[in-house]
Amino acid sequence: MDGPTFPSQQIGEFSIMALSDGYLSANLALLSNIDPDDAAGLQKAAGLRDPSSIHINCYLVRGRGRTILIDAGAGGFKQWGGELKANLALAGVQPSEIDTILLTHAHPDHVGGLLSASGDIAFPEAELVVHQRELAFWEDDGNLSRASERARGNFLFARKVFDGYRERMRTFTDGALLPGISAIPLPGHTAGHAGYRLESGDRSLLVWGDIVHFPQIQIARPDVSIAFDQDPLLSAATRARLLDIVSSDDLLIAGMHLGELGFAHIKRTGRSYEISYEH
Description:
seven-stranded mixed β-sheet
């Protein structure tokens, strides 16, 4: 019997698969520059049954002799997500086969799956690749001392992940990371938030991390930020700039909080944008 098929794209030599880690829930009151009722209306107009639900994607990249994971989901942190491990198995991939993990940033719904339930590293053969500024932010004791109680837990968890992978960690600032894969700094959501552009043959794809959390809201309204953004104004500016670029270039995108279809184009009509998922 055939197993499940996951949303996939072929970018030249790279095969990219969207693997769901499940969902987390976030109150729409966490959004700024929009009334929660208006936000809920946009979600319902898009056919979403639970307006507060945020989907969590991870991306499996295979090609050029590598097996790469971009982000690892929440892994059950705060009962969020936790489905990546099972979906990797359904995709026929063992954790020990992952040789590289590209991290968009170190929020718990992206690094939670890097540790097992017992706190051990979940991908023992993988090199963890993270923006130098991201690592420095979470390891800064001054930042920790200024953090709210909620954010403090995020700091401690990120540090636990970094400690686990310390001997297999590589930092970058920008530019080429691997053949055909380059890092794109996308600041605002976190200090070292980064996207990854894959180019091979005549095709390219941008994995844009957390440019949006609620795509049906924030693509229509790029000025809407969320309380998870460390710098809401910079985050909104980065989002507006990127929407302009990816729509003008008709660039295929992938994002950690897009829907389960995982891949999309951004269409611009006049001064407004909308998301068009790849089926």
